[in-house]
Write a structure and sequence with these properties.
Blueprint (H helix, E strand, L loop, with lengths): L6 E7 L3 H6 L14 E6 L5 E11 L2 E6 L4 H11 L6 E12 L1 H8 L17 E4 L8 H6 L36 H9 L6 E6 L9 E3 L2 E7 L2 E6 L1 H7 L15 E3 L17
Antiparallel strand pairs: 1-4, 1-5, 2-3, 3-4, 5-6, 7-10, 7-11, 8-9, 9-10
């Protein structure tokens, strides 16, 4: 059993908090409540400098949590952009993530009335918790297709490459936020060339490593690895070349992500 993922937690309060965060986070905070929603803060190139979790426990009050290696960077970022806003940032220690057990029971009873409108499949919901024994580990999150970005991978991936748009973490209708122009263009005018896949191997790899051409590691735990890659590169990496003189047998095996992910994160075009 691996240790639970510990996150650095912050509280944002003040009259301008909602407006400020709407201009920072890729998710639409009007749809965020007490559950913890994954989202991102992008740079102007549309790449995720932070992947974090956000909840709204009360009006004009939001809780943010991110990987500890990015905590100091997040503080610096918020202070820079909120300098002229009525927003107060408070460090509130550490927190963990757990599944929303009540919602999981609804899923088990086949009540899919809360299915995501983009995927038509009900997704899991998460909550912050101080109880380490019920918290999710890095391995749990990897198996669920949840990306954890650290200081080693900050700024490497676009939100759609991490498939945050399929997890409710990207809004295409709320208006402007950092990197929104690039993120929206990729959705409406183009499509991601590479996106998140799950692999299994005993081969160790660090976050940010290129384990093959066009295959880059997001995170790894206990032999399970999330990578951003083109589908063709995954096919090549996971093909056994033992009968060929060109390469050694592969050590990587492809595993499907949960069913709330589509085969591709690209937008489905409406029929004419």
């Amino acid at each position: 059993m691996t240790n639970p993922l510990c996150l650095s937690q912050f509280e944002l309060t003040g009259a301008d908090t909602l407006t400020f965060l709407q201009g920072q986070l890729s998710a639409d905070l009007k749809h965020v409540g007490e559950q913890a929603q994954i989202t991102a803060i992008c740079n102007l190139k549309g790449r995720a400098d932070f992947v974090l979790w956000v909840s709204q426990p009360a009006p004009n009050e939001f809780t943010l949590a991110t990987h500890p290696s990015l905590a100091a960077h997040l503080i610096q970022h918020i202070k820079k952009y909120a300098a002229f806003s009525d927003v107060k940032l408070t460090e509130s220690g550490s927190t963990y993530l757990c599944r929303d057990q009540a919602y999981d029971q609804q899923l088990a009873s086949n009540d899919l009335s809360s299915a995501d409108p983009l995927t038509q499949v009900a997704m899991p919901r998460y909550q912050f918790t101080q109880q380490a024994e019920s918290a999710l580990s890095p391995l749990d999150l990897i198996k669920q297709g949840i990306s954890v970005i650290t200081d080693e991978t900050a700024g490497l991936f676009q939100p759609q490459e991490l498939r945050l748009n399929e997890l409710g973490g990207v809004s295409y209708s709320k208006g402007c936020y950092l990197g929104q122009e690039v993120v929206a263009r990729l959705w409406f005018k183009s499509a991601p060339k590479a996106w998140l896949h799950l692999l299994v191997s005993e081969t160790p790899a660090k976050a940010g490593d290129q384990i093959a051409e066009q295959v880059q590691v997001v995170s790894q735990s206990s032999g399970y690895t999330l990578v951003v890659a083109r589908s063709a590169a995954i096919d090549l990496l996971c093909t056994d070349h033992s009968d060929s003189a060109l390469s050694n047998p592969t050590n990587w095996q492809f595993k499907p992500l949960p069913s709330y992910f589509k085969s591709s994160p690209a937008r489905i075009q409406a029929d004419n």
